[in-house]
Predict the structure.
Amino acid sequence: MPDVPVGDRAFAHGIGGSADLPISPSLAIAGAVAALVISFTVLAIAWRTPRYDEATTGRPAPAWLDGLVASTGWRFALRALGFVVFAYTVMVAVLGEDLRTNPFFGIVFVWWWVGLVPLSLLFGPVWKMISPVRTINLAFAKLSGSDPEVGVFTYPQRLGHWPAAIGLFAFVWLELVYPFMTELGPVRLWCAVYVAAMLIGGALFGNTFYEHADPFEVYSTLVGKLSVWGTREGRLLVRSPLANLDSVVVRPGLVAVLAVLFGSTAFDSFRDSSEWVSFIQSTTVSSYLLNNLALLSFCIGVGLVFALGCMLTGVGPETSRRSLPDRYAHSIVPIVVGYVVAHYLTYLVEFGQRTLILASDPFGDGSNILGTGDWTINYWLSYHPTLLANTKVIAVVVGHVLGVIAAHDRAVRLLPARHQLTGQLPLLFAMVAFTAGGLYLLFAA
């Protein structure tokens, strides 16, 4: 793949679509569905008691590592790193030129949005550790002599993660639908509103607000549940990611957050499909309106399919059907991660490199402040389409299989013995639909 101008490639999400996948779509979908059904069958026969309990599993991390992570110096270093990147981003947003070569776009849409996934998978809830809004809130609290954990009011528990879901939808709308998202002004304004809202929320409700309502912290924390790092009573643990998933706190709006994450990624594939492009070109209805409706429909559709699959499962005497979607929502996290990896892999690798190159010359004056200005993009991944195809399909399949395992482990804890097999079938059908639909859209992009 030749090195083409940044303006032609910068926002081509899902670089490496169907043309890069030398695998029969029908074979990939059939294989994935078969893997899902076989996994469920094996689990139903051999797995009759819960195995992943976050309260009892895991072993202590080495003492030196636990001490390092808990130290004030380590936390300060991470916050300093996050704030330096934040300050640089503000600089290029305010002083940089309104061109696509401004690294601000890559920092926001690639490093921040997509890069949070691999960082959180490797290190846990990264955004919570480096969040500049938490750092600013901490600084204000120190200056005023108050406690950053405590705000003026108590955060309403009924709100749960709903503000985070709304914030995530606002971001994916900006990224995928808003027609001027490649202009500096609108993206800069969105980021400014985000920072202002987070600082006001932190002042009113303390750090509890970030845990519940910061869209990027909630996103990073959920993905971080698939890392090997956990905590219990202040100690760092090493444990199975599936045990970490069991520690996802059930809150209102959790399903909405995951529906936005999964639905928006599916829409990103769908909007590049030949069928949708042909429809947009053949109709007199505004493409902007249609894309808005499609994005909203994908997010709502994912949430409804999952909620219906959960509510149709069997219930125990002390479990209400309305509570089931949020209680099973943790099982969607690996599905979201698998599809994000499949859809954005080449985008992150290749345009992530481009952003690092552009970051050395933020004002276009020939400077090389990071020493990366003379680097070239390595397109090795795109030059190996078979490997890329296999990686994408494996990411989707593994994500769905892990989702089935997590859902089954929760089901054998919630369902009465007589319903532990048949009671799970509606949720299995929902996950089969997600698998087939996700792979179809991956190939259609």
Notes: The radius of gyration is 22 Å. The beta strands are 59-60, 229-232, 235-238. Residues 6-444 form one domain.
